[in-house]
Amino acid sequence: MLSIPTATVARQLAASTEIQGAFYPRDPDPRPAIDSEIRGWSSVEYDRPLRKNVDFNGDFIVYGSNRREALVDGEAMVAWRGPKVALAGGLLRERWGRFSDSSLDPLGPANTPFSLVDPELRLSQPTIRTTVFLEGVTVDAYALIGHRSQPLPENDGRFGFGVPTHDVVQRGGLADQALALRVSGTQVNVDWSAHVFGGLSRRPTFVPRFTPDAGFTSVDAVYTQVVQVGGELETTRADWRFLGEGFARDGAVNVTGQEQTYVSMTAAAEYQRLGAFNGAYNIIPRFEFGVDSRGDQADIPFGSNVRTGIRIAQTRRLPLQVEAGYLYDWAFRGHGFRGAVEKGLAESPTLNIGFRFTSLSAGGKPSVLDIWRDDLELFTYIRVELSR
């Protein structure tokens, strides 16, 4: 895999290149992934003040692969801020009821660009946002007023669905007019927010299609009009960081295509032991629990899960960082493991080399969507970063 991201922020230019290759021992004919697919992404970001209290902010991202069509997304907005009110308009990217991915998650950021599990991370659309600043509280009102493109990639069944899926949603624009309100604040060392969203679902539900003889042929991405209410909490107590998120969604469908109102909740605790062993190491274990009321009717793995992991990093120059994580989906009785090692080799330019393995087990309970397969990936990369 090859990725070349570039960013320009406040007269600062940063460029990086990452070359990656993988090996899959459980394939019938083990082969290096780079022989059949080279994939990656490039991005540019730009922030510039236009005049007093008026700024332009934007980014442009392209995910590329020699086997799949390129995925393109960008954010570009003009923002004005007054003493009590701020206005922003343009292409905005927002998230509604999505717990932030942890780097300890085996299906986390490194897998996201070509995963069908979290496609909304690459979505932006014409939006007007009005922000009101009150005493200790911020109120954001959103009017999502234009069409958006849904850049769902093709999927080869690895770390996602158990069968190949192609063009699971019609390419082009989706009518996605919606209204949303978010209220956030900080009280007694607790950061909190609550939101209500009404409109076409941001993320589709994946529903399988069968032949008359029960053969699995394809997957449909189903969008419905939903009303979602949710909230998030975060606080720090001594060396512990606590996070929680939950939302209820009405008007959604489950993996069978039947309408089902459901609730999703996640809670996590992270112990941040920085500078342990006489300042030589940062040690961060994490514990997380999630529940999806759809149970075995959910269309994504690890919707109802228990996960734990740890990150250990040296604090010295050119550090070594080690991560390990484990997940268990108690709705389907499937397991996931991940381990990673990264070592810094040089500075200016920065040169890092890393290795990661990801292993998934077949679920102990059948899934309508067939989202569970045994798989193992051994993954290496070299990353070079240059900034000025």
- What's the pLDDT, averaged over the residues? 77
- Please indicate the count of domains: 1
Dominant shape: globular
Label the structural class: mainly beta
Helix content: under 10%
Keywords:
Porin, two-stranded antiparallel ribbon, 1 helix, 388 residues, mainly beta
Describe the structure.
It is a single chain. The chain is an all-beta fold and 388 residues long. It has one domain: Porin. It is 1% helix and 58% strand. The chain contains 1 helix and 25 strands. The strands form 3 sheets. The chain has a 20-stranded antiparallel beta sheet that branches. Strands 10-11 form a two-stranded antiparallel sheet. 26% of the residues are buried. The N terminus is likely disordered.
Please provide a brief summary of the model.
By secondary structure, the protein is mainly β.
Topology:
Blueprint (H helix, E strand, L loop, with lengths): L1 E2 L2 E4 L2 E12 L15 E13 L2 E12 L5 E11 L3 E8 L32 E10 L2 E8 L3 E2 L23 E2 L3 E10 L2 E11 L4 E6 L5 E7 L2 E13 L2 E11 L11 E10 L1 E3 H4 L1 E12 L12 E10 L5 E10 L4 E13 L3 E11 L14 E13 L1
Antiparallel strand pairs: 1-3, 2-3, 3-25, 4-5, 5-6, 6-7, 7-8, 8-9, 9-12, 10-11, 12-13, 13-16, 14-15, 16-17, 17-18, 18-20, 20-21, 21-22, 22-23, 23-24, 24-25
